[in-house]
Design goal:
Blueprint lengths: L3 H15 L4 E6 L10 H8 L3 E8 L2 E7 L7 E8 L5 E5 L9 E7 L4 E5 L6 E5 L19 H7 L7 H6 L9 H11 L12 H20 L40 E5 L2 E5 L6
Antiparallel strand pairs: 1-6, 2-3, 3-4, 4-8, 5-7, 6-7, 9-10
Helix pairs in contact: 1-6, 3-6, 5-6
This protein binds a DNA duplex (16 and 16 nucleotides) through loops.
DNA sequence: ATATGGCCCTGGTTGC
DNA sequence: TGCAACCAGGGCCATA
């Protein structure tokens, strides 16, 4: 599932393809989801605008748009959330449009930007910036938050550290894979109450999370299920997973079998020996 | 305010 | 082999 490293990879590859291009025409599917903004409003806002740049904010992909004819200032941003199975693909028009395609933006360069999402957990929205304020995600950025602020996030919290890592209003961008992997690297049992972890252990978790996210970005993300970047290229970080989806397999450190339980409604993978 | 659980949706997997 | 039941899971919403 797309988390911070996958979203960053997609945003960067889309940016390389579409930056500076004009949106010539827009097609949107007839489904209610994934549209958070009405289809007519979205079509109007996107058509004939130029894509200034594409970047990641939390798990959201942000398209900075400039109004038609260069008359308008930065008028709106197009926000794409990939959900579970969302993909953004840049394709030649003659390439068949995949099943479950919900948006097709024809670009001045001749290619099409397509949003495809089988499960429809993804979201497409328009963000109108007031006073130049760009779209902001709900929580703090794991890659730039200071160690002190990271520790403070969990103070007094009774929920498990796994659930806390998944809570996007605290940190945004971390999902099930990187929550499990960072807890393994930090040696922390996912069930531990977030507010009861020592400052030292939280600092370790912060470092572990940053290292893992940065390495995953370098490797183009984790391709489990069907994640690919805008060119259809898969990532390689899944080969580095120590616990995620390795239930019953030997721990790469101590050899004991990886265990699985459900926390916060999510499959949670850990080593009972290496994580206390 | 904080935390929990159900729900959405389809494709892949499992089981008979 | 074929088909149906089951399950995964990010974010949102209702509820405790």
């Amino acid at each position: 599932m797309p988390e911070l490293p996958e979203v960053e990879t997609v945003a960067n590859s889309v940016n390389a393809h579409v930056r500076g291009q004009q949106i010539v025409s827009v097609w949107l599917s007839r489904y209610k989801e994934p549209f958070k903004t009405s289809r007519t409003e979205m079509t109007e806002a996107l058509t004939a605008t130029r894509i200034e740049k594409v970047y990641r904010e939390g798990k959201h992909i942000v398209f900075d748009l400039h109004g038609p004819g260069g008359a308008a200032r930065k008028s709106a941003q197009w926000i794409v959330h990939l959900g579970m199975t969302g993909r953004l693909l840049v394709s030649a028009p003659e390439v068949p449009v995949p099943k479950h395609t919900h948006a097709v933006l024809a670009l001045s360069g001749g290619r099409e930007l397509r949003f495809v999402d089988a499960r429809r957990f993804g979201r497409l929205a328009l963000h109108r910036s007031e006073g130049g304020a760009g779209f902001r995600g709900p929580g703090r950025e794991p890659l730039t938050i200071s160690p002190e602020d990271f520790v403070a996030l969990f103070r007094g919290r009774k929920l498990s550290i796994k659930a806390a890592l998944l809570n996007q209003t605290l940190l945004h961008g971390v999902g099930n894979i990187y929550a499990d992997e960072s807890l393994f690297r930090a040696g922390i049992r996912p069930t531990r109450a977030a507010g009861k972890l020592s400052r030292e252990r939280l600092l370790r978790l912060h470092a572990a999370l940053k290292e893992i996210l940065q390495k995953a970005i370098k490797l183009g993300g984790s391709s489990v299920s069907d994640y690919v970047d805008a060119d259809g290229v898969a990532g390689f970080f899944q080969l580095e997973h120590n616990v995620y989806l390795r239930t019953g397999e030997p721990c790469r450190v101590c050899g004991r079998p990886i265990r699985r339980l459900v926390l916060a409604g999510r499959g949670t993978h850990y080593c009972a020996h290496c994580q206390k």
